[in-house]
Amino acid sequence: MLASQVESREFLFQLFDVLDTGALAARERYQAHSDSSLRAVVETFGRLSAGRSGAGDERAEALAGDSVGVVPEVILTLGNALYETAGQQSRLFRTRSEDLIAAPMAASVSAWQDYRTLLTTLDMADLDAPESADLRGRLLVAKSRSEAALAMGLYGASLAEDVQSHPEADQRANSERLLAFLEPLLAWWPRHAAWLTSVSLGRARDASQIPDPDESGRLAREFLGQRVWQHQSHGLQLFLQSLQKDLEAATTQDTQQWALSLSETLQRAVKVTQGLGQGLQGGAGDRVLANASRYLHLFGEMLAGWMWLQQANAAARLLAEAGPGEESFCLGKLQAARYFFHWTLPEVAQDLVLLQNQDTTCLDMRAGWF
Known about the structure:
The chain is an all-alpha fold. It has a domain at about 215-365. Helices cover about 75% and strands about 0% of the residues. The model is unreliable at about 55-70 (pLDDT under 50).
């Protein structure tokens, strides 16, 4: 499959097979659209950002005119990231969620394109050789991180879209509250994932790519110290309820096992959260917040696990009727999900232990001891 075809398939999969963006055509704001015209806009953004053109571009560009009022925010978010990553005019379109999502989304697209570019330089026969298992492992790190980061940014943009255009007022309110709860995670995890992708590919070019540790610490303390408890933890409850739908949607032996792993991690995280809440109420704020970065990491990985469960569920559905090229795409998605659930999610066990014990190793360290 050509590089441009892979890029197009990835974005169409994320938007239409996972997020069901085509259903937005039923909303009044997008009544001029259909599923196919929305797909055409996505493909056009991809061509134009790469300096290519094709039949139908004029129609897609016209539909994108005046941006927010015509094309869904989730598609505009991807279009902005593609243009910014390509080094062209940054952010062609104004979106209501760009202050939150634009920079992490551009970092995610850039990391994913670096991963895809490296693949084009490798000999596939050599890559399949037994002695290349370690290289395949590093590429799985890049794939599992960068594609989860893409999914995370697009999911955040889809929530922003629901805040604006969902026909039901209750759903608009719930989407706004869930987005507010996830904001620190959406700001931190994709950029962290982009950095890990660069490291795994040997392409970490300079220190400026590393997420700012001070900013990460601020987000961590804000998440654990405020967002989790706002509105009587309604945002956290919405997170759990929304995730539960995808846990129940797992139908294959593999996806059901991954759903079980994620569910068990969630249950432990909820129990730990209850203990941390008691600590905050009991006046042990310094002790609790000393490990806030581990809490941010824990929830970031669970959110990434959710993104991979969504993708695995979609890939499993498509696999039954997939042709040769599509079959490889779906099997790649399922293998990356397997990697995440077998290799990455279990690592949060350390976070859970440190948080449950409210470990004070870092808090107890003194300046003079360094």
